[in-house]
Design a protein that fits this description.
This protein is of the alpha/beta class. Helices cover about 25% and strands about 30% of the residues. The chain has helices at about 60, 70-80, 95, 110-120, 140-155, 185-200, 220-230, 245-250, 255-265, 285-295, 310-325, 375-385, and strands at about 5, 10-15, 35-45, 45-50, 85-90, 100, 100-105, 125-130, 165-170, 205-215, 235-240, 270-275, 330-335, 345, 350, 390-400, 405-410, 415-420, 430-435, 440-450, 455-460, 470-475, 480-485, 490-495. Strands 1, 2, 3, 16, 17, 18, 19, 20, 21, 22, 23 and 24 form a 12-stranded mixed sheet that branches. Strands 4-5-8-9-10-11-12-13 form an 8-stranded parallel barrel, surrounded by 6 helices. The protein has a two-stranded antiparallel ribbon with strand order 6-7. This is Glycoside hydrolase family 5 domain-containing protein.
Length: about 500
Amino acid sequence: MRVRYWVILLCCLSTLSCGENLADNHQNNTENDVVIDDNIVNAYFSGNGIQWGGYDMVETWTGNATLSESDWDKLFTRIRFMRPPLVRIMVAPGWNYIVDGQYAPEKSNPVLCKMLDFCQQEDIRVIFGEWGHEGGTSINQEWLQNAVNFLDWLINTKGFTCIHYYNMVNEPNGDWSSIKGNYPLWLSLMQQFHAKLVQKGLDSKVVLIGPDVAVWNIGLVSWVDNTVSDLNGKVTAYDIHTYPTETEVRDGSYRLMTEKYRKAVPAGKEMLMGELGFKYKVASELGQQNLQRIASDKYASDDCNMFVYDAFYAIDIADALIQNMIAGYGGNVLWNLDDAMYSVGGYTSTKLKRWGFWNILGAEKFENAADEDIRPWFYTASLLCRYFPRGAKIHSVTLPDKYGLRAVAGEYNGGYTIAIVNSHRVSYTINLKMENGKALDNMKVYKYLSGEGSEFSAKTDEDGFALPDMVEEKVDFTNGKSVSVSVPAQSFYLMTNVE
């Protein structure tokens, strides 16, 4: 067993705090109560998950049509620990179902179908779709028919009922997209694709989701508004993508922005975060460091977040996830699982999109076996996937005015998960309470403290998977009782009795 741990004082279970009240930079913060409310912000959570897929260059890089069995086993073991209820997989004709100009869906057997087999076995719902359309400012009808035929083959021939959502075109608002921000073109595409789903009898088997726009502020709410009004009854779930800066997440303004988009969705309809990562302003300290790291890594493309190697990234990701959960999002997809999935620059390129928990081809192709190791942010991300399962009820949490402090609670099959993150560089002591509180038995307690560089303090096993720091036989919130919890700077705390 490999042990990396730290001790947070979990004080006596009473209404009195026996933790030291640590100073912070906000003198008006006189209250320290964090209260799990009865109010439910999401009655059916679809889960936190990951972007998977790609591996389009595996044959070019390794000479084999698929990953080695040992690499597949390593991937599957790690994902099983995460238990993501949700995975997003996107495809393209040339990579997945066109060979020498002819429709050939069997092209996807070595890689895509291997992943879908796994999702089917593990009861993981898949957001599936096309990266882009063909036809420029019009719609290539042969491509459109092939796209729906491929979906039909996957669901009805291969039996992949794990495909739950369909996402037609990635980030259509962007100038990098095949749609290039042309809303009328995207609308026509969605209407035509939906008609073909109906013809194939697939409209009852998948949920059409959109608009899948990438947003940095509230300026694109109209895409959601228009999708709601123009595609009512066709699109029945909604999503956006966000890549905030660290400042926007740590100061909480990120949640205020994402809430605007969630509130544009009709009551009772699901809103997902279809991609979530971090991008830094070029002139910022982190932005400059990221560019320097990219320049010094011969396998890094210009589309990388090189801080996936750093311990603090685990904290920022947890903060962003929790903000979206308490904002009412039905699920979040983290960008992404594995560096080896995507590259930039064509068939001969080895320039990776480094955004992953690891690089599964570190040894085989990229001269660095250690790059296959789990990176720090897997710790917090895996727990927020694992212990907020599909079907959980997400409770609102009343928080004191403390910079960088966030919390969320989930209820599932009589069990509870409570997650707390402090992305600030100042420590806090809080009194954790529950409205109409319960006594919670056998609560596993996980703790993560970010250090310098890639160093962090937490308890893990020999595979790098999170282990509980302790198990509390009873955590008693009845009759107004509270638990005093010290939350150090740049730390994450999770307690759960969800199995």
